Design the sequence.
């Protein structure tokens, strides 16, 4: 899946991602980049989110808000096994 496609889906609503963590374990996460779904107290304060996303894109990482634990997390794009967006599964191709 292309980075920009994933970011577009995440900005739209909650998405489910399954990926392999750096320690080799599987992780399932319900996450978003839709600020209407993120508590105001957790909105980025001093860093421009678009600027940061650009930096993370160079290392192929995706920074998201984990809706289960209410914290910001990231995962490597290459570690994604499955990504389900707003309208169902989105292929990784």
Sequence:
């Amino acid at each position: 899946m292309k980075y920009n496609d994933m970011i577009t889906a995440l900005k739209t609503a909650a998405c489910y991602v399954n990926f392999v963590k750096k320690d080799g374990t599987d992780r399932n996460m319900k996450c978003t980049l839709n600020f209407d779904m993120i508590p105001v107290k957790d909105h980025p304060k001093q860093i421009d989110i678009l600027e940061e996303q650009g930096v993370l894109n160079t290392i192929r990482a995706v920074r998201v808000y984990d809706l289960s634990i209410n914290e910001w997390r990231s995962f490597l794009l290459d570690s994604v096994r499955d990504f389900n967006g707003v309208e169902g599964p989105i292929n990784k191709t």
